[in-house]
Amino acid sequence: MRDNLARVAPGLSLPYAPGLPGPVPSVAGILGDQEIAATGLTIAAGQEESGAIGWPDGHIDAWNHVECAMALTVCGLRGPARLAYEWLRSTQRPDGSWPRRTEAGGLVTDAAGESNHAAYVSVGVWHEFLVTRDAGFLRLMWPMVRRAIDFVLGLQTPRGEIIWERAADGTPGSYALLTGCSSIYQSLRCAVALGDLAGEPQPDWELAAGQLGHVVAGHPEAFADKARFSMDWYYPVLAGPVRGAAAAARLAGGWPDFVVPGLGVRCVSDEPWVTGAETCELALALDAIGDRERALELFAGVQHLRDADGAYWTGLQFANQQHFPAERSHWTAAAVVLAADALAGTTGGAHLFRQAGADRAVAPPADTSACGCVQSADSRPCTFQDPERAFGGDLGERAGG
């Protein structure tokens, strides 16, 4: 593998220092630090000269690119990680978004912008700061984050959900996605924290996050029906809008449909197909609500997708025991690394997902009339917190696309 530090073009404004000091995660009895470091190197090996990290077919979207950048940081590969963030900064469009699909080499083949793609850069920048405590990096990236969140909130409806895309001609999409909006909730929380540290507090973003979290937690009618996808099941827990007893109940309700013991999590409920990224994300969700035992079981079980060099196959069609698709994906490797860090508690970003729902339950929104909720006279929480309504119905597409 070529040294990514040698890829830095003249004139880039970020310092591409050697790898970060400190340990790489190690999950006892499952993966050692050298094995996790090897996984990080497989991600770095697939990085383009530009800094972009793509899908197995070579195309890039911002969400999965950010996830890979976070994993590089966990593995101490600071040069490749910073190059990945520089790619984001250099390719952001004037409206704050990124193209849904950019081919290797930079050709845009789908110019629509997705709201959750743009939002997730704030999670990546916040994670990078938590691990490195590099205030200079935060200051450099803050204008990018601010533009991205402005693009995202331009797609928020009065009720609170955020439309999933804006077409190339500027037309907003016609619906919102539960997985995407859950991820955006976490992104807004991270963006608010970044704004505070940058000296530019964003109280309107805080209000927007509250309205969005409320709708995610209690208004399934606000979202397109994607209940067959496991991500619609666990993402409201992973990203923070649903925590506590409600989170445990939600995961228990979907467990028989999505979890295959010893193999992992189905991508969709009606196919014999488990995927590594979904399995690791569910492990992260379980860790976030304190269910460490099952998180470790899932993490151990998904290692059947590990290849000899530390890369990971995307999934397994277990009815015929074939890898499906027949590809190894960087985002799957990244999800493994992030889950390992959360379970090991190694870096400053290890608790990123646990903290997504910390220190505040989803409260009544700022505008109860917008979502149709009614608060009682004694100001108790509004009716969405009734578990029969909020989690008894059909709640349940990769967040990156």
Keywords summarizing the entry:
single chain; 401 residues; Glycosyltransferase; five-stranded antiparallel sheet; two-stranded antiparallel sheet; 9 strands; 5% strand; globular; disordered N terminus; disordered C terminus
Question: What does the model show?
Answer:
The chain has a single domain (31-356), classed as Glycosyltransferase (Alpha/alpha barrel). The protein has 401 residues and is mostly helical. It is built from 15 helices and 9 strands. The strands form 3 sheets. It has a 5-stranded antiparallel beta sheet with strand order 5-6-7-8-9. A two-stranded antiparallel ribbon has the order 1-2. A two-stranded antiparallel ribbon has the order 3-4.
